[in-house]
Design brief:
The protein is α/β, with parallel strands linked by helices. It has 14 helices and 15 strands. It has an eight-stranded parallel barrel with strand order 1-2-5-6-7-9-12-13. A three-stranded mixed sheet has the order 8-10-11. Strands 3-4 form a two-stranded antiparallel ribbon. The longest helix is centred in the middle third of the chain and has 25 residues, at about 160-185. This is Family 1 glycosylhydrolase.
Length: about 425
């Protein structure tokens, strides 16, 4: 019996890019199809099985399955079959920057229709897969509100600070309704609410922007999670059990220099204003005291293995401080295109090689070798056994490794 049983069957998690937004050119994007995950599902999940990863973030394309309140979930069947065959457990991502055409996200109808959709997804998937069941109702509420509310990249194509704030509140309210609808069907379902970890600093020559940068780091970052927790807008029904599991995304571009309009500028490597990941995780933990995962993280190109090494050192330093870190999601499992340029980002566990219209999956070996090293360090499996769900992950092994290694927070990111 596990001394410190985890929530998930493996500590390392992965996932697949599944955005279905209306892009700024007014065309619907479907990254599930663009990465050919829909046609390579069996292969993709077998890759995770061979890597010892039994949990994966997986998308349901709301705008594509919802036909005005009537649902066609047949596109999920190949994914579910592949999960069952490979014995990988999903965290269902129900709204990844996209919602159905003609739906006003600021209307009451949006909240009602989203709740109905969430209930329908739970009714469809819960009988087909053994529990426990995990859901992310709305992915990255904060980032979604920037993309659609202030930068005008995706629908609803707004571009003011106030619109961004209003959009964020509307999304958080809908997410709470979605949580409650899911639990009408699966009362024990767990929720993983994903948002970015960020730190924003003022330009060195603009002390007048210090207050705005500080506000964005220590107030704006937490508004969506605060609403889900019930700290803000308690009339929406947020509560600690609604927030449930906090998924904090960590990328190098999450540490930024403030800009008054448009996206902020990512800090260059070696900038002395960068904060250690351990400190960012600690800030989230002290605010909510809820179980946490790193909801997404990856380096780029040849830096992927070094990035994972840094993330692991920082994560273990955080665990040694007492943070309840349940897992780390290496995202994405297979490469994804840059939304703006279409070029492959080379941030996945697998790269893509185009071959006559087919996208061949090729493991990035240095990344895999670094994963293997950490699986052994933490006494984790390197390949799934016949029944990966028979026992929860033994988090005591992770805690013991953190105490043994005594990793120290370090702002010097690769």
């Amino acid at each position: 019996m596990a001394r410190h049983p985890g929530i998930f069957p493996t500590f390392f998690i992965s996932g697949f890019e599944c955005s279905t937004f209306l892009w700024k050119d007014r065309t619907r994007r479907n990254l599930i199809a663009e990465t050919q995950h829909d046609s390579h599902a069996r292969e993709d999940y077998q890759i995770l099985r061979e890597l010892g990863i039994a949990v994966s973030r997986e998308g349901v394309a709301w705008p594509l399955v919802d036909r005005g309140g009537q649902y066609d979930f047949s596109s999920l069947d190949p994914l579910i079959d592949a999960m069952r065959e490979s014995q990988v457990m999903p965290i269902w991502d129900l709204c990844h920057y996209g919602y159905p055409d003609g739906l006003d996200p600021f209307s009451n109808d949006f909240q009602t229709r989203f709740a109905d959709y969430c209930r329908a997804v739970a009714e469809y998937v819960a009988p087909k897969l053994s529990g426990p069941h995990f859901f992310t109702p709305i992915n990255e509420i904060t980032f979604f509100s920037f993309c659609g509310g202030e930068w005008g990249w995706v629908a609803p194509y707004l571009n003011t600070r106030q619109a961004r704030m209003d959009f964020r509140v509307a999304l958080a309210r809908a997410a709470i309704a979605g949580v409650k609808a899911i639990r009408e069907v699966a009362p024990q379902a767990r929720m993983v609410h994903i948002d970015p970890l960020v730190q924003v600093v003022a330009p060195r020559n603009r002390p007048d922007q210090i207050e705005a940068a500080h506000h964005e780091t220590y107030v704006d970052t937490f508004v969506a999670w605060d609403i889900l927790y019930g700290k803000l807008h308690p009339e929406f029904g947020g509560a600690p059990e609604v927030l449930d599991i906090v998924g904090a995304n960590n990328y190098s571009f999450g540490q930024m220099e403030y800009r008054e309009s448009g996206p902020h500028k990512a800090l260059d490597p070696g900038d002395d204003r960068i904060k250690p990941l351990c400190e960012l995780l600690t800030t989230v933990w002290e605010r909510y005291r809820r179980p946490m995962i790193i909801g997404e993280t990856s380096g780029m190109g040849h830096g992927r293995s070094a990035w994972l090494r840094d993330v692991m050192h920082e994560s273990l330093a955080a665990v040694d401080r007492g943070i309840d870190l349940q897992g780390i999601c290496l995202f994405p499992a297979v490469d994804m295109p840059d939304w703006h340029t279409g070029e492959w980002l080379h941030n996945g566990i697998c790269d893509m090689v185009e071959n006559g219209g087919d996208l061949k999956r090729v493991l990035h070996q240095p990344y895999v070798e670094e994963l293997r090293r950490w699986q052994k360090e933490l006494n984790r499996v390197t390949r799934l056994d016949e029944d990966p769900f028979s026992d929860p992950v033994e988090l005591q092994d992770v805690i013991d490794a953190a105490k043994r290694m005594q990793c120290q927070p370090d702002a010097n990111w690769h």
